[in-house]
Amino acid sequence: MKTTVTPAQADQLEADQQIIGRVLTGHREDFSLLIMRYSDALYRHALGMTGSPDVAEDILQMSFIKAYQHLAEVRGRFDAWVFRIVANGCKDWLKNIRRTHLSYDEDDQPSGYATPEEDLDRTELRSDLDRALAALAPSLREAFVMKHVEGRSYEEMADLLGTTVGAPKMRVHRAREALQVLLEEKYA
Q1: Confidence at residue 4, expressed as pLDDT on a 0 to 100 scale
Q2: N or C: which end of the chain has fewer CB within 10 A?
Q3: Separation of alpha carbons 97 and 109, rounded Å
Q4: In 10 A of CB 143, how many CB atoms?
Q5: How many C-alpha atoms does 79 have within 13 Å on its Cβ side?
Q6: Distance CA 138, CA 32 (A)
Q7: 74-91 tens-digit pLDDT
Q8: CATH entry, 113-188, from 1.10.3720.10, 3.40.50.300, 1.10.10.10, 3.40.1010.10
Q9: Measuring CA to CA, how many Å separate 145 from each of 33, 125, 134, 185?
Q10: Which of 1, 34, 44, 8 is nearest to 151 (CA)?
């Protein structure tokens, strides 16, 4: 599947290629430009996949180390290439996780609910949603997070994942169905 590249994306691709060229010719400190450019979006993805700020930070750090070590292997867009490294890191972590509950660390955020009961209901719903998301297959969880947490379009998802548009659409659909089944008994 080929997507059209906007002038801004073409400029970004060219800028990334220039930075990569400088890093490969000995200007190692220029790699920090790529880290600054992409770390926020990649962190949000890792956080959505793992539910843990610490784990997301670890995955991001290891991914950038791996990207630096294999920078000469970049073919095409750096952002899509490094996204796959982070996504694979998240999937590996999910395969190895042995716990059933993930927290989004919202305890320090002020509540917008009027009563303690409403706040408790919200906390319980978040906990149930966390458990349901954790129960999804990594590919379904990734698609759901990309679409509904990160707000990506199906076209952008397909581009980053290296698939057709239909693949992430189907994964999001299957994730919604699975979440509905997992949450239906309690909230129907």
Answers
A1: 65
A2: C
A3: 26
A4: 26
A5: 22
A6: 30
A7: 988 999 999 999 999 998
A8: 1.10.10.10
A9: 26, 17, 11, 23
A10: 44
- Burial label, 101 (beta-carbon count in 10 A; 0-12, 13-18, 19+): exposed
How far apart (Å, rounded) are the C-alpha atoms in residues 167 and 158?
A: 7
Provide the b/e sequence for 28-61 (b: ≥16 CB within 10 Å). Answer: eebbebbeebbbebbbebbbbbbbbeebbeebbe
Separation of first and last alpha carbons in the chain: 39
Q: Which CATH number fits domain 1-98: 1.10.1740.10, 3.90.226.10, 1.10.3720.10, 1.10.357.10?
A: 1.10.1740.10
**CATH 1.10.1740.10 intervals, the chain:** 1-98
What's the rounded Cα separation, in Å, for the pair 32 and 23?
10
Cα-trace Rg, the chain: 19
Confirm if 90 and 50 have CB atoms less than 8 A apart: yes
Burial 109-138 (b: 16+ CB within 10 A, else e): eeeeeeeeeeeeeeeeeeeeebebbbebeb
Token output for 147:
């679409």
Query: What are the pLDDT digits (tens) for 24-36?
Result: 999 999 999 999 9
